[in-house]
Design goal:
45% strand, five-stranded antiparallel beta sheet, three-stranded antiparallel beta sheet, mainly beta, single chain
């Protein structure tokens, strides 16, 4: 957003195995200046992704959620000590009701 309130689209998610779909959380800015977040759908099993986007709009998928690890992330990444991040997953491995991915 500019100082005058104008906004521009950095990335439009397309879904599918190489992109996310339905971003449902805010972004967090890493110490590298990039923005990090999650999508509820998209990725290799359509169970959500973690992504990185630069301030110029270059977006890359960092992780694709799979049923054996956890699915459908509902919260974004959080700042943690250098070299790590966390994301809240709505559904995790069997017999759980959610988990953190570290």
């Amino acid at each position: 957003m500019t100082t005058r309130g104008a906004v521009s689209i950095l990335h439009s998610f397309q879904g599918g195995s190489s992109d996310g779909a339905t971003p449902a959380s805010g972004l967090v800015q890493g110490t590298d200046g990039n923005l990090y977040g999650s999508t509820v759908y998209g990725g290799s099993e359509n169970m959500g992704t973690l992504f990185k986007i630069t301030t110029t709009g270059s977006c890359s998928m960092l992780y694709s959620f799979v049923s054996s690890v956890g699915t459908y992330p509902q919260a974004g990444s959080r700042k943690t000590p250098p070299g790590s991040s966390t994301a809240l997953r709505k559904r995790a491995v069997p017999a759980t009701r959610g988990a953190f991915l570290v």
